[in-house]
Design brief:
Radius of gyration: 31 Å
Number of strands: 45
Oligomer: single chain
Structural class: mainly beta
Distance between the termini: 48 Å
Strand content: over 45%
Largest sheet: 18 strands, antiparallel
């Protein structure tokens, strides 16, 4: 009955099919993700979750069709097509994998021999398709079961109409069809999306990018899977053991070896499962792999599954990827989505006519109206037919979409969300007009409250208005805020207006002003939460602040791909502040608060500077060399380029002060880069240098300052601060330079140490240096452990730091949070 139903559905919905049918096992159960292609070619398709397939054949006559599925015998069917559509149903038998006498009689583990041959043949095999173009089709499906009704007190809705009464169902369904181009040396990739759709959405832009789905087991590490070690990596034997489970012959009589992967360490960055290797060619025939959240270092992931199928191309004498699927199972904050992304590669051209203009920094683009294709177009184009469930989801959500865009529906939803609750005066409140894309918000004080020794307990509250003008990124926002300190009893108002014109170059203009209390170090080395905790619990007020009454206008834009400009002009009155409270939860005799004078923490009378007015012009530019980017229909998404460093240059001119000595000219340069070392971890560096045109007796906050740290558990950026340097120890009105380098070895070092490797900790080593014209150099060296925690929740890092300043040496431990 199932078979009849699916075939009736197939005939009714797919009018352009050439050869179609259903694939089952010997028990009549449908088989999904079976590779179906013309013999000795790489043009084909796969079966859907119901076993239904459609194979595009353009000519009548004799054809040989291959049905290939890991774990089942490959089937070849000779057919004679006299008319279209042609129906061909097949049943696949389970593969009988056996160990030959030769395989088990050798002195060395035969699986090791096969894997060594596969590693040695990697370049030879991939060189055969070093350049190609192909068609790429992907489909993503995500289901959820028993979805929570609320998240942090807010309704989660029905996910676009995808949930039933048990709050279960499809929450995401998408398809993408694109043309891809690939070049091996130097490695380049380009994708042009011909058609894209998302169930229940107008823009139809899916997550199904070909480059993000390019899982190449011939690479040493799999970047998409957080740099997991490939089973045929050049150093794979340090991570895997191998077992030959058996051999079998495919439909063309080629011997295939099935190799079981056995991780040397359970929590290492590895796969489990089986990889299939072609005898003599030593190419990949297929894989059926799985990994866990612990192994990919993503705690919310329960499991990730990967299946790949390759087909032999007689034209280039190579085994080429034709199908792939990724299964995922996730648990996060009570949500448990599960799903699968399926991919089909077809119509390969292994002799493309690439020119100098073929590959540019634009790695993704869309054809005109790619997100507006109708069902007729998709039925003709789609290589994998939809299941009944998927057809139903498209139909229901497309109908719901029309209703939910109406003013009546949006107003009804807003009426529910705009209700005022008892907690809103503390947490905040928003009034939305979804039809006109406008939001008015009140920002409550509860999450904007803290403590410092100048203001005592302080809190803030304010209002804001946001209006989105179009879907291309044009919007504006206005806000006003009041900050009040209960100890100094002073109210400090601020206002802001911001307008953005588009999502391409992202031009943004902001006008701000009011009264604020910034840190003396404008790089903000201390988080206010850190300071609140240190003050209230340990009577330590590391953060030093002053008052600034100001008006400022600033503008930023990406003027050309990879070239960013920013500029601002500010006029401010700067006033010193003093402690007004010594309150703390800590006992008075433990420690006494230091003063608010960063130059002399024992001086509670004299300020660090005299009150003055001054103007500041800040012009900056950033170069991201070779920046790759994605061109979506309504926006540009920049990806950067880790092959080259990012360089930033700033010129800061302070002028207009009553005392000419306070005026200054400053140049700052910054170079930073993250380098993926594959199986050997990741290396990163951040270099910063600056110089005043002329040393002058300027205000303290205008001096060049390094980001220090005096906390055991700081909340900051590791490559932007020093671990054991006092916050205001280093400053200069002349020249300075700082350097931060770090290498995270992942599992490449500790993973090889017996017993210790079972903990799955990552070794991290780093160095820092600080040079100032009028001070002795300051240096730090650190070694630590990353990926600390319990089970799959591993987001802590600890480092032992040794620092030296002249003849002074210091050491200590520093803890940080290291997410993902």
């Amino acid at each position: 009955m199932k078979k009849i139903t699916f075939l009736i559905f197939l005939c009714a919905s797919i009018q352009f099919a050439q050869v179609k049918g259903i694939v089952t096992d010997t028990k009549g159960e449908p088989l999904s993700f079976v590779s179906i292609y013309l013999d000795k070619t790489v043009n084909g398709t796969t079966s859907n979750d119901n076993g239904v397939y459609i194979l595009d054949i353009t000519s009548k006559g004799k054809h040989t069709i291959v049905f290939q599925f890991l774990g089942y015998k490959t089937l070849k069917k000779n057919i004679v097509v006299t008319e279209f559509p042609y129906t061909l149903d097949v049943s696949l038998e389970e593969e009988s994998v056996q160990l030959s006498e030769i395989s088990i009689s050798t002195d060395e583990n035969p699986a090791n021999v096969i894997i060594r041959n596969a590693i040695a043949a990697k370049s030879k095999n991939t060189d055969k398709y070093a350049n190609y173009t192909a068609q790429f089709y992907s489909r993503g499906l995500t289901r959820i079961k028993d979805a929570p009704e609320k998240f942090f007190g807010q309704s989660t809705g029905d996910f676009g109409g995808g949930l039933d009464s048990t709050r279960s169902g499809i929450i995401y369904l998408s398809e993408t069809f694109s043309k891809i181009s690939f070049q091996k040396k130097p490695k380049k990739f380009k994708e042009k999306i011909v058609a894209s759709k998302v169930s229940g959405e107008d823009n139809g832009v899916s997550f199904n990018r070909a480059e993000d789905s390019n899982i190449n087991l011939y690479d040493n590490s799999i970047e998409v899977f957080n740099d997991l070690v490939s089973p045929i990596s050049s150093n794979a034997f340090s991570y895997y053991k191998y077992k030959l489970e058996g051999t079998f012959y495919d439909a063309n009589g080629i011997l295939i070896n099935k190799i079981k992967l056995i991780p040397r360490r359970n929590n290492d960055r590895v796969f489990e499962g089986s990889i299939y290797i072609v005898e003599n060619d030593w190419a990949i025939y297929g894989c059926d792999l799985v990994t866990s959240g612990v192994q990919v270092n993503l705690p919310f992931v329960n499991s990730l599954g990967l299946k790949q199928g390759y087909a032999y191309s007689e034209k280039i004498d190579a085994w080429v990827l034709i199908s792939q699927s990724i299964d995922f199972d996730i648990s996060i904050f009570g949500f448990k989505p599960r799903g699968k992304f399926s991919y089909v590669y077809s119509d390969y051209d292994f002799n493309p006519n690439f020119t100098e203009t073929t590959f540019t920094n634009e790695v993704l683009s869309f054809e005109e109206n790619a997100t507006k294709k109708d069902s007729v177009f998709w039925n003709e184009l789609r290589p994998v037919s939809l299941t009944l469930e998927e057809v139903k989801d498209y139909k229901i959500k497309d109908s719901i979409k029309v209703i939910r865009k109406s003013k009546k529906y949006l107003d009804s939803i807003d009426a529910k969300g705009n209700k005022f609750n008892w907690s809103d005066p503390l947490l905040g409140y928003s009034y939305r007009n979804s039809y006109k894309n406008r939001t008015f918000s009140f920002n409550g004080p509860l999450l904007r409250t803290g403590f410092n020794t100048v203001q005592g307990v302080y809190t803030s509250a304010g209002v804001s208005y946001f209006e989105q003008i179009n879907e291309q990124g044009k919007w504006w926002n206005a806000s006003a805020n009041l900050n009040y300190g209960f100890s100094d009893q002073k109210l400090r108002p601020t206002f802001s207006f911001t307008k953005k014109w588009n999502n391409l170059s992202r031009p943004r203009l902001s006008v701000t002003g009011g009264i604020v209390t910034p840190q003396f170090n404008g790089r903000n080395p201390i988080f206010r939460l850190n300071n609140t905790i240190a003050s209230l619990f340990y009577r330590q007020n590391y953060m030093k602040i002053y008052e600034k009454t100001f008006a400022k206008v600033q503008y930023s834009e990406e003027v050309k791909n990879g070239l960013y400009f920013s500029g601002s002009l500010e006029y401010a009155k700067r006033t010193p502040l003093f402690n007004t409270t010594d309150y703390s939860f800590a006992k008075p005799e433990t420690n006494g608060y230091t003063s608010n004078n960063p130059l002399d923490p024992t001086d509670f009378v004299n300020p660090a500077f005299t009150e003055h007015n001054i103007a500041t012009l800040n012009l900056g530019t950033t170069f991201v060399f070779g920046q790759k980017y994605l061109s979506y229909p309504d926006r540009k998404v920049n990806q950067g380029n880790n092959k080259y460093p990012t360089v930033s240059l700033n010129y800061i001119k302070r002028f207009g002060a009553d005392n000419d000595a306070l005026n200054s000219d400053l140049f700052i340069a910054n170079v930073r880069q993250n380098i993926n070392a594959g199986n050997f971890g990741k290396f990163a560096y951040n270099l910063r240098a600056a110089a005043f045109v002329k040393p002058k007796d300027i205000a303290f906050m205008d001096n060049l300052q390094a980001n220090g740290n005096q906390l055991i558990f700081p909340i900051d950026r590791e490559l932007n601060s020093f671990n054991l340097l006092d916050y205001y120890q280093y400053y200069t009105n002349d020249k300075y330079a700082e350097m931060h380098v770090e290498h995270n070895f992942k599992g490449s070092v500790l993973g090889k140490i017996p017993l210790f490797n079972k903990l799955n900790f990552h070794l991290v080593a780093g160095g820092k240096a600080l040079f100032m014209a009028d001070k002795k150099p300051y240096t730090e060296y650190s070694v630590g452990l990353d990926n600390l925690g319990f089970g799959k929740y591993r987001f802590l890092r600890v480092a032992y730091v040794n620092a030296q300043y002249g003849d002074v040496k210091e050491s200590g431990l520093v803890f940080r949070i290291s997410l993902f």
